[in-house]
Amino acid sequence: MDEDGNPCREFEKMKWEQDLKDAQSFVDKISNAFHICNDITARCKQNPSLDIVVLKNRELRPLIEEICADARRIYADITTKKDEEPKRQCSKKLKAAIGYIVNNEAALKTFLDSPYGLMHNNAVESRFRELDILRNSMLASDTFRGADNLALFYSLYKTAQMHGVEFETYMRKAISVMTEHMSEIEFEKDNRGTIIGYKSDSISKEVLESVMPWNLHI
User: Fold this and answer.
1) For residue 70, which phi and psi values (nearest 5 degrees)?
2) Are strands 185-189 and 195-201 parallel, antiparallel or unpaired?
3) Which residues, at least 6 apart from 156, have a Cβ–Cβ distance to it below 8 Å?
4) Measured distance CA(196)–CA(192) in Å, rounded
5) Three-class secondary structure assignment of 187-201
6) Close Cβ partners of 19 (under 8 Å, ≥ 6 residues apart)
7) Lowest mean pLDDT among 9-13, 57-61, 127-131, 199-203
8) What is the C-alpha separation between 69 and 56, in angstroms, rounded?
9) Between 153 and 36, whose confidence is greater?
10) Which of 46, 167, 186, 209 could lock 199 by a disulfide, CB 3.0 to 4.6 Å apart?
């Protein structure tokens, strides 16, 4: 609405009221699909003799097919060939969401034919959340060497967790010990003498073993 309480011209031109109706319809149907899927899963846990794939295809697939059909119908109206006007204007976010469903329809339906398939991968994503946060704050993590270093660092982090060692405290102690052996470490440097990576070292195995998470007592 504008300052006078009238609908904004852009809102009327883009027909965003239809976008809101369609978005609400998708939310309602997808929410209902989650309820059906959760109910099927709960019933199969209570009764292992039930075939979850049969139940998903019988009770859930019709709704998933309806959602995909709605997406294809809207997609046909909001997309055009070159130099043609679409039948309907659409917000960028809704268009992207509709396009995602249409372009990935086959993949989005695969969970229906798998006894282990889920409607979402939130549990998997949450497992990698720590790594993603670390990646975002780590310089050059989008390079091959940066990715290798990130994997090694994260492996060290999880190893410390497995051995009940608080990671920040562990890193402080490990860095303190390694600082005493800086003269035994050879770094890779660029033409300006700036350290750009690790090259080699002559640190004894005993020292290296002493700073491993399972040996370092904090």
Assistant:
1) -60, -40
2) antiparallel
3) 213
4) 10
5) EEECCCCCEEEEEEE
6) 90, 91, 94
7) 9-13
8) 18
9) 36
10) 186
* Among candidate residues 93, 119, 122, 92, the one with its CA nearest the CA of residue 108: 119
Nearest C-alpha neighbor of 41 from the set 31, 30, 29, 55: 55
Half-sphere exposure of 211 (CA within 13 A, CB side): 19
The two three-digit tokens of residue 174, written as one number: 């490990």
Say which amino acid occupies 56: K
With contact defined as beta carbons under 8 Å apart, do 102 and 109 qualify? no
Answer whether 0.70 is exceeded by the pTM.
Answer: no
Could you give phi then psi for residue 56, rounded to 5 degrees?
-65, -40
Quick check: 18 and 70 in contact, CB under 8 A?
no
- Kindly indicate the confidence band of residue 43, based on its pLDDT and cuts at 50, 70 and 90: very high
What CA–CA distance (Å, rounded) separates 217 from 169?
Answer: 11
Question: In DSSP terms, which residues pair with 197 in a beta bridge?
Answer: 188
Q: Whole-angstrom Cα distance, residue 17 to residue 23?
A: 10
Distance CA 192, CA 113 (A): 59
Contact status, residue 60 vs residue 119, Cβ threshold 8 Å: no
The H-assigned helical ranges of 79-143 are: 92-103, 105-108, 122-127, 129-136
